[in-house]
């Protein structure tokens, strides 16, 4: 391959992220992004939508996630750079497609920190109802922003502690749930009902599964840290599989126990803030307090990683020049895209003016667009390079990613009407911006030659 021109190489080197993350850091940051304790929030919503089949909905989304994780694992070995789905689509399919995928993905990356800030206000209103919601929102955003500005390694080390607190709380929660089932609390008994789908239930099941995609976004976020991992081609694929397998097993165990104990969620006073109520029911006031403390650890850990990953996506697009380079492509002396971090923090503060349902409706569309595009990128890459010889290459390069694209597309179409309307509207805005930047596709999009500069 032709060597990169000095101008191009200098441009890339001037926008350099610091490689400081090990496999351990990547796994814990991915798990922190997913906020394992958030499974208790979506439980009530999905149980109501699926008629008491949350575990089966998790199995359904897990199929899509595993197929997508395999696709991400392949693409990060080929393109170990920041930007995730945006970069993969840009390099393998077309720069214009990459821009639209990245634009769509900003829906989940930008608004997840907002939802996280909203959750902090919802949960802290349980023990401290007199404190205004905006105080908790602002405090959460400021803490995560300052930590991310200090540097990626501090955020990673903080997440080791914060995820550890979630694991302890989750195991305690599972213990109390199992104890409740064994003692027939709330009339609970061991049954396969949560996994048995009634006639005509496929539509609600897919709708519920599409909501649960939020639970698995951590493995996707890890790929945005490719330029800050010490060994990206080795460690990020490993981190992806560890995150998906461990999280999937945890979600299935917790939701099965919860569904057996609470087959009818109408018994809960609040679906959105169900966790504290369930904690009080199964473990008493002491456990509820402990759970709330651990949940705030989850909020901070999740907020740190969500903001960090969103900033890296904006950084990748800014470095290419498809977003304002002086803002989003800027890297400070600590190797941090500082202005991008501040922009994400500012967007998260908009949570003061929204409720949880309004913010949540903006997310899943972008996630499924990104998932589908990565699966398609794998197919395109293998076809273009001719790497489809042999049964294994055909399976991993064509069959499984094609199946993954179809499953993710089906889940995308299963989203509620508001989510699809907001998502399509956002993509149309991106398309208009693309037409302006390219003067009706007569001018190429600006970008850095990542492949050449990496050699």
UniProtKB/TrEMBL annotation:
GO cellular component: membrane
InterPro entries named among the record's database cross-references: AA-permease/SLC12A_dom, APC_superfamily
UniProt entry keywords in alphabetical sequence: Membrane, Transmembrane, Transmembrane helix
Subcellular location: Membrane
Record domain Amino acid permease/ SLC12A: where: 25-379
Gene Ontology biological process terms, A to Z: transmembrane transport
Taxonomy, superkingdom: Bacteria
Topology in membrane: Multi-pass membrane protein
Transmembrane segments: 26-46, 52-72, 93-111, 131-152, 159-182, 202-226, 238-258, 278-304, 335-354, 360-381, 393-415, 421-441
Signal sequence interval, chain numbering: none
Coiled-coil residues: none
Gene3D superfamilies membership: Amino acid/polyamine transporter I
Protein name (Swiss-Prot/TrEMBL): Putative amino acid transporter
Organism whose genome encodes this protein: Microlunatus phosphovorus (strain ATCC 700054 / DSM 10555 / JCM 9379 / NBRC 101784 / NCIMB 13414 / VKM Ac-1990 / NM-1)
């Amino acid at each position: 391959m032709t060597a990169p021109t000095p101008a191009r190489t200098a441009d890339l080197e001037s926008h350099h992220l610091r490689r400081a993350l090990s496999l351990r850091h990547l796994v814990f940051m991915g798990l922190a992004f997913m906020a394992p304790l958030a499974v208790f929030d979506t439980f009530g919503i999905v149980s109501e939508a699926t008629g008491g089949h949350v575990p089966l909905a998790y199995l359904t989304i897990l199929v899509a996630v595993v197929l997508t994780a395999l696709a991400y694992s392949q693409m990060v070995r080929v393109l170990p750079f920041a930007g995730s789905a945006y970069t993969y689509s840009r390099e393998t399919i077309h720069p214009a497609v990459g821009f639209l995928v990245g634009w769509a993905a900003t829906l989940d990356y930008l608004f997840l920190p907002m939802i996280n800030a909203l959750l902090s206000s919802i949960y802290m209103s349980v023990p401290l109802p007199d404190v205004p919601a905006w105080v908790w929102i602002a405090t959460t955003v400021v803490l995560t922003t300052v930590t991310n500005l200090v540097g990626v390694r501090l955020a990673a080390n903080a997440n080791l502690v914060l995820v550890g607190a979630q694991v302890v709380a989750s195991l305690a929660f599972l213990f109390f749930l199992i104890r409740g089932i064994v003692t027939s609390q709330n009339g609970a008994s061991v049954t396969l009902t949560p996994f048995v789908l009634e006639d005509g239930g496929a539509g609600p099941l897919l709708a519920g599964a599409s909501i649960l995609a939020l639970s698995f976004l951590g493995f996707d976020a890890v790929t945005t840290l490719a330029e800050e991992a010490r060994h990206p081609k080795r460690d990020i694929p490993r981190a992806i599989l560890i995150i998906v397998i461990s999280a999937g097993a945890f979600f299935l165990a917790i939701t099965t126990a919860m569904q057996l104990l609470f087959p009818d969620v109408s018994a809960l006073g609040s679906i959105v803030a169900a966790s504290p109520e369930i904690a009080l029911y199964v473990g008493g006031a002491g456990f509820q307090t402990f759970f709330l403390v651990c949940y705030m650890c989850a909020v901070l850990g999740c907020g740190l990683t969500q903001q960090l990953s969103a900033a890296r996506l904006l950084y990748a697009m800014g470095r290419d020049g498809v977003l304002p380079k002086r803002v989003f492509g800027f890297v400070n002396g600590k190797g941090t895209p500082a202005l991008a971090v501040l922009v994400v923090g500012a967007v998260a503060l908009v949570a003061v003016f929204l409720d949880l349902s309004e913010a949540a409706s903006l997310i899943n569309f972008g996630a499924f667009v990104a998932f589908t595009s990565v699966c398609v990128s794998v197919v395109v890459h293998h076809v273009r390079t001719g790497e489809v010889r042999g049964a294994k290459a055909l399976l991993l390069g064509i069959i499984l990613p094609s199946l993954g694209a179809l499953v993710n597309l089906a889940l995308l179409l299963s989203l509620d009407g508001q989510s699809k309307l907001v998502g399509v509207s956002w993509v149309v805005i991106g398309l208009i911006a693309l037409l302006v930047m390219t003067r009706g596709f007569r001018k190429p999009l600006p970008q850095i030659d990542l492949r050449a500069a990496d050699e």
